[in-house]
Amino acid sequence: MPTDTAAELLALFAAAGDSWVSGEAISRRIGVSRTAVWKHVEALRALGYQVEAAPRKGYRLIARPDLLTPEEVSAGLTTRRLGRVIEYRETVGSTNDLAKDLARKGVPEGLLVLADQQTAGKGRLGRSWLTPPGAAIAMSLVLRPALPPHEAPRITLAAAVAVTEAVRDMTGLPAGIKWPNDVQLEGRKLCGILTEMEAELDRVAFVVLGIGVNVGLRREQMSPALRETATSLALEGAIGVRRAVLVQAILSRFEQAYDDLLAGRFPQVLSRWRSLSVTLGRPVRVHGLGGQVTLEGVAQDVDDDGALLVRDADGCLHRVLSGEVSLRPA
Amino acid sequence: MPTDTAAELLALFAAAGDSWVSGEAISRRIGVSRTAVWKHVEALRALGYQVEAAPRKGYRLIARPDLLTPEEVSAGLTTRRLGRVIEYRETVGSTNDLAKDLARKGVPEGLLVLADQQTAGKGRLGRSWLTPPGAAIAMSLVLRPALPPHEAPRITLAAAVAVTEAVRDMTGLPAGIKWPNDVQLEGRKLCGILTEMEAELDRVAFVVLGIGVNVGLRREQMSPALRETATSLALEGAIGVRRAVLVQAILSRFEQAYDDLLAGRFPQVLSRWRSLSVTLGRPVRVHGLGGQVTLEGVAQDVDDDGALLVRDADGCLHRVLSGEVSLRPA
Questions:
Q1: Of A231, A230, A307, the residue nearest A273 (C-alpha)
Q2: How do residues B92-119 score in pLDDT, each as one tens digit?
Q3: Domain A70-276, what architecture?
Q4: Which of B200, B203, B209 to mutate to test the interface with A (most CBs of A within 10 A)?
Q5: Which residues of A touch B152 (CB under 8 A)?
Q6: Which one, of A187, A182, A160, lies nearest residue A273 by Cα?
Q7: Which among B205, B289, B323 has the least Cβ separation from residue A146?
């Protein structure tokens, strides 16, 4: 079944809610004969949708699987330019790597790569990122901002704001941002953001914004080490969050924040970041790219480049542009 | 003829200077029969080398073409790790694009791409760059520095220093650096540097450093517009500069400066940059990425990130990280 037909059929069912949709209405809407309608319904069922059929009543959708497919994400998406074109893979090595390949081939801004499973998911600083099938969101956006590279970290901050607000709105869980770009719940990592770019030294060619969210991930799917540091929406009590709906919420909030930063309204994004931060005001330890502790102090603020401003015991203010920060008890 | 055999044969001739080398000595050195020596000499001649042959004396090299081949560049190269592996193309779209492809495939730091001609040479900010056959150097180095992206501009400054010093040493011409990375002679551009990178936001994956030098370029090879703004070593009176030797000189100076900056001695590089600069102390006009004038003032200094510090008429100091600068009469 073509994607468009499936999307139209799903939209029809969504509009009908609990009501029945007649075979005739379906045949008019998707432009096939009434006898062919049955075949399209069967195709939906094969994808995991539960469709009830009854003589003289027609069809109604009684359960939909939690899929990240283009049909699911496109139906109800409110963005103007981000995620309007979706490249979906059931399994992929890394959505960021696929998005970078596509970006190099010239795909326009806004293309979204989605995968149900990553076999070689990537985290920051060369780390791996776990994405077992059905349990997480793995999404990567191709962006082509007219920014110099040193302003690109603003995109990561905007993305962290978008994810945190989307999670709070959908689940009520008190998600917060750990500098620069982890979204946490009770000190455990819920979402990682990996931003990669290709650039001349004073001009970004493209940015790939990768977002991984642990949605239904169970404890036994994590390594013992990960159980200490990571969590998922389900583990924190938000059961049954539909991944496609969360993707829509993230995309729509991110598009707003991204438009703000491109239009010179980055201070607004930054002020939302500050209010969601769990880092500011806390004693922190800064680790360099090699893991060594390079600075201890109190996190004071972030600046326009996304740098963390840390005041050390001597009262000196340091600008931290890279590396890792661990939070210490206040 | 394999590259290694040609390189050995050329090294043998180079060591002999004006003297003859016997066929027997050649056969011993390159491990072929004396009758096969003649075939190897013929292969060299086919590349443009003039080799004299005389019975009972042997062979001697009386003229060598100005080639950018691996044999020419490798013979006499003094670097430890940059340019030890060379990927040569007689014609290529862009040496930077080829180097980026190779870098993505994982080639190690130091790989050098060389081409005699570029058909789609690239300059900064999406401009094109002219590289007709035989008249210029087109070289791109793959680098893998352990630097955050905001320090990558230091590599460009180091490269500008290396090219400028190499040109001064080899030709005596008073080359100077216009911020950030043009090497000029009498206000006309002699060399352009295009640095591209792939990075996470806080870690460089690789940098491709592209250097184009106009060596023998003639006025009639330039467009009318280019004649106003560009020049070549030959046009400035330095005739017969061998491109391979200039590449060696650039590589060896750049390796030193690159090692300095990786080892925390960037201030030394910067102080050489300052002394070669034609921008500092001059009234300048700064143009944004869109071409608009964003600032006028006097160029005071560069800082550790390679930013140009410009003082405006009100005495305020501005940090210019991207864009273009035009020099104005003092």
A1: A307
A2: 999 999 999 999 999 999 999 999 999 9
A3: 2-Layer Sandwich (3.30)
A4: B200
A5: 149, 201
A6: A160
A7: B289
